[in-house]
User: What shape does this take?
Amino acid sequence: MARQIRQLDELMDGALTERFNREMERVLANVFDPNTNPKAKRQIQIIIDVAPNERRDAAVLRVDVKTKTAPPVAIEQTVFLHMDDAGNVTASEITREVPGQIGMDGSEQPIPSVIEFGRVDQTQK
Assistant: This one.
């Protein structure tokens, strides 16, 4: 049975609207992602291809919905590097909290994590 298309949300039994709604949710979630640039533009594209046949009495509709979201921003942290007499290297992360300080909720601030890299061969220069 043929049905005349009068509105965009009727196209493909509502599949286009459903896909648009899903992509809009993705875009809005990306806007609120604290790991992305808040001022970066996001985009939703609806692409409708119409490919008529030779007689022009029928056409194939192809619908695609594409989204461009903001990528995660790079993060940066300063670390203290230390090499002991044996050539073992460690890195300690700098934090705003003072290790051992008691917070307002009564919890103690942890000691910053230390990453050990192992022995560095100092003969290679």
